[in-house]
Structure to design on (325 residues):
């Protein structure tokens, strides 16, 4: 088992949805489907590099390598459809590390305590005692907002490459998603209520965040977050939270550059966000897209559509107006 289980690293469902899947039997049903089929059907395939995003690649490479990492074997690029992702610049053998992002470039919860506004707004007590806020998305989203407003942020190269106009479908109101899973839609509605409550909390404490800006950063966090500890520790943390015991409310992180890797049912890399590395799980060719399976247990395309913006192939959706990064 990898250090961080890939299917739960990026929180496409979030902890509440993962818990609800167990409760409703959805996850068990999915696992049975996988057992029956033998392996997951490949619907979301990796792409081939069509164009290198030179400015983003140079900006991120200089930042990562200045801080002691290794960005020499990958680039930020686009496929023929113009969708952005990470690509290999050379052949890579199975087991080799293809990207190393240093600790200084990772956004982990300990940084909250070092940021005056974060430290006052995102206390552990606030999230432990109030059920109207959630701690998977909101703290990281606020960190992005505050760092983006700094004249000089050590994370500026990463922040400057984030999409300027990005919203996951699950966070948009009053649109026809054509999703049959009412439980999933209800979970997303409750999630939107909680993140909006936290925005109002920020405004009441003199941190003005527009609804549009908040929607963007929350969408980015929801589609990019990773666990910042090993999965077994986070599973124990989740159980403590459910039992109303003393738990760590800040258990997600951002993995700059690594979070540009797109989803595929035919993965070629393992992600270790805690240590900032991407490792080849098979031989990778030059110009091949670096992809991993966001949720190996999940076969419902509505999940990938609502939480990531991926097209729903089984329903005839061949294009979604969203970037894949």
């Amino acid at each position: 088992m990898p250090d961080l289980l890939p299917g739960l690293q990026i929180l496409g469902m979030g902890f509440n949805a993962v818990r609800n899947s167990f409760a409703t039997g959805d996850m068990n049903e999915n696992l049975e489907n996988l057992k029956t089929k033998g392996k997951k059907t490949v619907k979301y395939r990796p792409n081939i590099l069509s164009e290198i995003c030179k400015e983003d690649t140079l900006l991120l490479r200089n930042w990562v390598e200045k801080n002691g990492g290794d960005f020499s074997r990958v680039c930020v690029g686009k496929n023929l459809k113009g969708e952005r992702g990470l690509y290999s610049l050379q052949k890579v053998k199975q087991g080799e590390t293809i990207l190393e992002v240093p600790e200084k470039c990772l956004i982990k919860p300990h940084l909250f305590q070092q940021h005056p506004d974060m430290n006052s707004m995102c206390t552990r007590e606030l999230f432990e005692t109030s059920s109207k806020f959630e701690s998977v998305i909101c703290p990281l989203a606020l960190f992005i907002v505050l760092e983006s407003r700094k004249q000089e942020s050590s994370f500026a190269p990463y922040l400057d490459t984030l999409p300027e106009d990005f919203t996951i479908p699950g966070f948009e109101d009053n649109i026809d998603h054509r999703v049959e899973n009412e439980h999933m839609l209800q979970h997303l509605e409750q999630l939107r209520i909680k993140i909006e409550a936290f925005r109002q909390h920020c405004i009441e404490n003199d941190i003005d965040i527009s609804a549009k800006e908040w929607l963007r950063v929350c969408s980015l966090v929801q589609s990019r977050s990773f666990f910042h500890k090993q999965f077994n520790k986070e599973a124990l943390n989740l159980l403590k939270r459910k039992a109303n015991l003393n738990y760590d409310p800040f258990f997600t992180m951002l993995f700059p550059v690594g979070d540009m890797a797109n989803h595929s049912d035919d993965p070629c890399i393992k992600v270790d966000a805690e240590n900032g590395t991407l490792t080849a799980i098979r031989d990778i060719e030059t110009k091949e897209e670096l992809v991993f399976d966001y949720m190996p247990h999940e076969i419902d395309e509505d999940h990938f559509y609502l939480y990531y913006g991926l097209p729903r192939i089984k329903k005839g959706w061949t294009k979604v107006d969203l970037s894949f990064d």
